[in-house]
Amino acid sequence: MIKASWKGNCFLDFFNNKSSYGNVDKTIFKSKSTSPYKLLKYTHDEEGRCILPILHTAGGLVGGDLLEFEINLQKNSKVLLTTSSAQKVYGSVGRSKINPEGIFSKQKNLINILDNSHLEFLPQETIIFANGLYDQIFKVSISETSSFLFTDLVRLGRSSSGESIEKGIFRSKLEIIRNNDIFDDWEYVDQIELSKTNYESLSGMDYKPVFGSLIWICEKDFPKLKIKELVGNIKMIFKKSDNSLSIGILENGISVRFLGSSSQDARKCFFCIWKQIRYVCGFCEPKYQGVWPLQDSMNY
């Protein structure tokens, strides 16, 4: 067994704390974390949603690093969780005489969302440097009256410097389970592996280095007509983009894929979709607060 070069963990427990003034319920949290995780200043929007950016202070991951992330949303809470910078995965293959084949850096994420709670987990992109090996797992448990929005962006190599992923590999597995009193129901399972073969294949990424996923799982009884309206609005966004985009309708939600050459384009596209999701949910419109930076206008 290979010992982790750096093991960091972060535990977040969010809960509703009714304000003593006005009618707004505020979500607050308790936390416990070790380096390299650092929690930055949190804020609230007009709906009492807790907006929390997280920083990885080490600047990147090397082979053997292990990060563990646990998020719990107690009843009646709303959370926007993001990161303050891109996650960098440095090269591992060929760097060590002991392990010339390289060692994966890993991140394990456990998320539990209780009744009438809503989590938006919108981290910035993961950049896989040449020969970087990275494996991430997300296990999400959600109640019937709650929702989960997740975006995942990955860039293979630093293409602006002429670098590709070479012998690097990106792996990701997402499992979402709906909990109820009788049995647990699988809402969504997604498993991806990206490598040089996928990057160069005409039926794969076709030399486009940026791949993105947006997954939204809504409440069990969310109106189907509203999902249909949402899909129509998203397809209008697609028409204004030069990138490769697709959308799938899930039993309770949607799945969007992005393929292109610009991380900025992906963020802008996902931001527009995020606004549409907030709209059909009856939530306030998301605003630029510097925690999900976009260099240009966010409106198509």
Mind explaining what this structure looks like?
This protein is mainly beta and 300 residues long. It has 3 helices and 18 strands. The chain is 13% helix and 44% strand. Strands 3, 4, 5, 7, 8, 10, 11, 13, 16, 17 and 18 form an 11-stranded mixed beta sheet that branches. Helix 2 packs antiparallel against helix 3. The model is unreliable at 294-300 (pLDDT under 50).
Report the mean per-residue pLDDT as an integer: 89
Q: Tally the helices: what do you get?
A: 3
- The number of E-state strands comes to 18
Classification by helices and strands? mainly beta
Please indicate the percent range of residues in DSSP E strands (runs of 2 or more).
35-45%
Flag low-confidence runs.
Answer: 294-300
The geometry reads as globular
Report the sheet with the most strands, covering strand number, pairing sense and barrel closure: 11 strands, mixed
Radius of gyration: 19 Å
Helicity level: 10-25%
Number of structural domains = 1
**SSE run:** EEEEEEEEEEEEEEEHEHEEH
Report the span from N to C terminus: 50 Å
Secondary structure layout:
Layout: E1 7-18, E2 25-33, E3 37-39, E4 43-44, E5 50-56, E6 66-73, E7 78-83, E8 87-89, E9 105-113, E10 118-122, E11 126-128, E12 133-143, E13 147-156, E14 169-179, E15 185-195, H1 196-200, E16 210-217, H2 224-239, E17 244-250, E18 253-260, H3 263-281
Parallel strand pairs: 1-6, 5-7, 6-9, 7-10, 8-11, 9-12, 10-13, 11-13, 12-14
Antiparallel strand pairs: 1-2, 3-5, 4-5, 13-16, 14-15, 16-18, 17-18
